[in-house]
Predict the 3D structure of the following.
Amino acid sequence: MRWLPGPFRKIFRHWEKLQYFVKGFKGDTTSYFHEENLLCSTLDLFLTGTETTATAIRWALDILNFVLLPVEKVQQEIDAVVGQCRQPSMADKEKMPYTSAVLSEVLRMGNVVPLGVPRMATSDTTLAGFRLPKVRAVCSAVNLWGRFEQIVWVNIPVHGGGARSGLLRVICAPFPGKRACPGEQLARTELFIFFVALLQKFTFQAPAEAALSFEFTLSLTRCPKPFRLRAVPRG
Ligand code: HEM
């Protein structure tokens, strides 16, 4: 790779800078800027950055057909703003309120990351009246199914076994919280571009024998169960 020309080469400059930055913290046992954390954070981005958006696009196609949202209205907006001769871009988004609203609805109904990311306190602290002991307390954000609402759940082990659990707060957002999803902008961009590009060129129809449903499987994300659609090129 080092000898090939191309814009990707700037990755080597960034990598050198990153190594220099991490070396600056060598020997500092209180710092989180070390190679292991860098590797884990990079892996986090790959894991969280692929499955989530792909699942949201699958929900979009499932929901459009299942709920019978007026796909024609989305396609009319695409034809008026983007047309058929060029690819969509993010500059089109503000002129496409209907498509944007449909995508918000997809994120709400799809509820792609319902269980949030578990968190631990790095030092003893207090949060909304709960004393969170270092490392032992686990907080997790849980999105309520199918609504723009999120509860934050805390689970604190107590002396003598067991755990004290409780509700911390309720907020309303698809990418919630202060420690919000760092991929939100990327996810919204990918979702918009792929969704618009797909509906610009195809109409998706469920074959008569295939019943679409809201059934899902739950792992890292909440995925629709496999379904079949026919992609009919638009004339
Ligand atoms: C439709 C797409 C996506 C949805 C619905 C989504 C949603 C979420 C949610 C609900 C959280 C938990 C926030 C919390 O616990 O308070 C989260 C965390 C996270 N997301 Fe996303 N996300 C999406 C796409 C992405 C993408 C594309 C990336 C990266 C490129 C990404 C990276 C992350 C990471 C690294 C975290 C953990 C943040 C932390 O530990 O503080 N996400 N996401």
In short: The mean pLDDT is 80. The radius of gyration is 22 Å. The beta strands are 119-120, 125-127, 130-132, 138-143, 150-157, 163-171, 202-205, 216-218, 222-224, 230-233. The first strand starts at residue 119 and ends at 120.
